[in-house]
């Protein structure tokens, strides 16, 4: 079964400006140069179909750490695509949405009486990590992978 989209490659390359040992600046931080940080994705054709806008699926959610005021401690990336889940989980639920048994029953109840039972929700069912280069409270440069930061797949739950 094909995924709504897949991560092909994430690349973060950091190079020293001059050869030799890393030298600290007057602030005590390492002087580094970020040459590239990118993520490439393959999107399915469903995302391009305007008639599919009500179906459960993922939508763009661009996170900009600079706009959040976090660029004073996050070195890279300064932004990334997080995506978010959106759409209506109508009865009958399609199998590719991998609904739970509870979601199937809840959606059936909602189809019979929408006032008594809310529909099931379109939520992330698969998430992937991103790597962040940041300055910690001790002024150390830290490279860390943060789990569950990018929506890879949505479903009805």
TrEMBL record:
GO cellular component: extracellular space
This protein's name: TGF-beta family profile domain-containing protein
GO BP of this protein: BMP signaling pathway; tube morphogenesis
Record domain TGF-beta family profile: where: 38-157
Predominant location category: secreted
Cellular compartment(s): Secreted
Coiled-coil regions, chain positions: none
GO MF annotation list: cytokine activity; growth factor activity
Gene3D superfamilies linked to this entry: Cystine-knot cytokines
Assembly and oligomerization: Homodimer; disulfide-linked.
Tagged with keyword Secreted: yes
Organism per entry: Oncorhynchus mykiss
Keywords of the record: Cleavage on pair of basic residues, Developmental protein, Disulfide bond, Glycoprotein, Growth factor, Secreted, Signal
A Pfam family assignment: TGF_beta
Family: Belongs to the TGF-beta family.
């Amino acid at each position: 079964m094909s995924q709504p989209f897949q991560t092909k490659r994430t690349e973060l390359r950091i190079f020293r400006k001059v050869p030799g040992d890393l030298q600290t600046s007057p602030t005590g931080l390492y002087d580094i140069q970020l040459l590239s940080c990118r993520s490439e994705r393959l999107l399915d054709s469903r995302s391009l179909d305007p008639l599919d806008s009500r179906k459960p699926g993922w939508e763009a959610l661009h996170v900009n750490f600079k706009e959040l005021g976090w660029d004073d401690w996050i070195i890279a990336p300064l932004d990334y695509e997080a995506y978010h889940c959106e759409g209506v989980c109508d009865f009958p639920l399609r199998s590719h949405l991998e609904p739970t048994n509870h979601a199937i029953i809840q959606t059936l109840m909602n189809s019979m009486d929408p006032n008594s039972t809310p529909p099931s929700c379109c939520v992330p069912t698969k998430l992937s990590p991103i790597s962040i280069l940041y300055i910690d409270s001790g002024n150390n440069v830290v490279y860390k992978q943060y789990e569950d930061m990018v929506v890879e797949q949505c479903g009805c739950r």
